[in-house]
Design brief:
- By secondary structure, the chain is an all-alpha fold.
- It has one domain.
- Helices cover 80% and strands 0% of the residues.
- It is built from 20 helices and no strands.
- The mean pLDDT is 83.
């Protein structure tokens, strides 16, 4: 079994377990034990820390992926890794100072609509620090082609931590007010575990000597820092802007819908952990045939697998919300359809983002990311006022669709390769056909039985059409 298929399979399994735990947290434990206000607070704090995380890491995790395989001698690799560990401190130290000096001003600005935020401003910084260095050491492991354990820590660990803490809240062992502080501490425990594991895989001889191409490394990190900040802005700005315009409870309803919709990207999240270092290595080795293969195959396989996830989610969403028995959460069903459609389009791009980020064309990621961030902010500012949380979802869809198309065109103009083949059209026809057929089926069963029956029908139809169109071989990359 190829390294991509093997590690992707394990990572998909890991993420599915994480999603199941997260589903329990998101749809039951959070609303039941923290209630909407504190749930909305947690979503806001974590989303805001994610906006800060690219700045704190200085793009170091992406720099490791791009440059590690370019060094052939161990001494050169050791110099590189020794330097990269200290790179985030260029921003962490001054940001720490600024947070300390202007804490009250920042707290006043962020808590205009929701005063509850005021007491937790430091959480944003602390969680961002822990996640930044976690990503650095996770990339350290990934360039050794070991992504599984790190993926467990990335996906399962935080959700399991939340699960345990919510249980403790339910038994009144900790308070709702202290929940977020306990969670922050567990993020630091995760970081410690990741550091130990990464050093176990590869322990460099630490040195203060800079690599010979340190100027190129700093330039790349600077570009990725800015591009990553803008991209992170795109991911979490909706969760940041909704509480500024509406009640925190709306953020909770939106977060549940987005959580459900992003299940579509599980296969992509799993595959990218291992395929991105392979793309970087192929680029460093000037292996153009391997790049073309990875680009096309990753697009086809992700479109097929993510398409199945898309159907299972959207054709079962009404029954799922009936199980929740909360009409307010169910009003966000359109958000699920819009966001999951956007994620399906994004996944069809395959390893395109890795090609852009680790090739000689990496500088284009900055204007793309800035343009996306500005676009989604402007759209959110207007559409949230007009359509509420549905407006935030529409903004995300428009931006992801438009810029995925532009990125495909850009890569094609520079390399004369593109990810889509005739098989891509077959998959889209297959998804559309099953969606419209099942949309008219009404079994009049209990919600949980309806989900089981409908899912089995979808799975049977999907696998049958994959066989009919001869697409099974598209699922294997390496």
């Amino acid at each position: 079994m190829g390294i991509v298929l093997k590690q992707t399979s394990w990572n998909v399994f890991t993420i599915i377990i994480a999603v199941l735990i997260g589903a329990i947290n998101t749809v039951y434990f959070y609303p039941e034990f923290l209630k909407e206000d504190y749930y909305g607070l947690v979503v806001f704090l974590l989303a805001t820390s994610n906006l800060l995380q690219p700045l704190m890491s200085f793009g170091a995790q992406h720099t490791i992926i791009k440059f590690f395989s370019s060094f052939k001698e161990k001494t050169k690799k050791d110099e590189f890794l020794s330097s990269i560990v200290f790179l985030p401190l260029f921003f962490i130290i001054p940001i720490s100072f600024l947070v300390a000096q202007f804490h009250d001003l920042v707290a006043e600005f962020l808590s205009v609509k929701n005063p509850i935020i005021d007491s937790y401003i430091w959480v944003i910084f602390l969680v961002s620090f822990a996640t930044s260095y976690f990503e650095v050491f996770y990339s350290w492991a990934r360039v050794q082609y070991k992504s599984i354990f790190g993926n467990i820590l990335k996906e399962i660990y935080p959700r399991l931590s939340v699960f345990v803490l919510l249980v403790l809240v339910s038994f009144e062992q900790i308070t709702k007010e202290n929940f977020i502080w306990w969670l922050t501490g567990l993020y630091y425990l995760r970081l410690l575990i990741m550091i130990i594991y990464s050093l176990y895989l590869y322990t460099p001889k630490f040195t203060f000597k800079l690599p010979s191409n340190y100027k190129e490394i700093l330039l790349y990190s600077s570009y990725i820092l800015l591009a990553g900040s803008a991209a992170s802005f795109l991911i979490d700005i909706d969760k940041y802007m909704i509480p500024q315009k509406q009640a925190s409870s709306q953020t909770a309803y939106y977060a549940v819908a987005v959580f459900i919709a992003t299940i579509v990207e599980i296969p992509g999240r799993a595959m990218f952990q291992i395929i991105n270092p392979l793309v970087a290595k192929a680029l460093n080795d000037n292996n153009n045939s391997e790049i073309k293969k990875l680009y096309s195959k990753s697009s086809e396989s992700l479109l097929i697998v993510c398409g199945l996830f898309f159907l299972l989610i959207n054709l079962n969403i009404d029954s799922f919300y009936l199980i929740l028995n909360n009409k307010y959460y169910s009003e966000a069903s359109l958000v699920v359809l819009i966001i999951s459609s956007a994620k399906l389009i994004q996944m069809s791009f395959g390893c395109g983002p890795a090609i852009l980020a680790t090739s000689k064309f990496y500088k284009i990621t900055l204007p793309f990311s800035i343009a996306m961030a500005i676009s989604v902010y402007i759209l959110n500012d207007h559409l949230i006022d007009l359509y509420g949380i549905n407006g935030a979802a529409i903004s995300t869809f428009v931006v992801l669709f438009s810029f995925t198309f532009l990125k495909v065109v850009y890569i094609y103009s520079k390399t004369n390769i593109q990810p889509y083949k005739f098989n891509s059209i077959k998959v889209l026809i297959m998804i559309s056909l099953i969606y419209f057929i099942n949309g008219y089926l009404n079994f009049d069963l209990l919600p949980i039985l309806d989900i089981v029956v409908r899912s089995l029908i979808i799975l049977f139809m999907y696998l049958s059409l994959i066989y009919f169109f001869g697409l099974f071989k598209s699922l294997k990359i390496n």
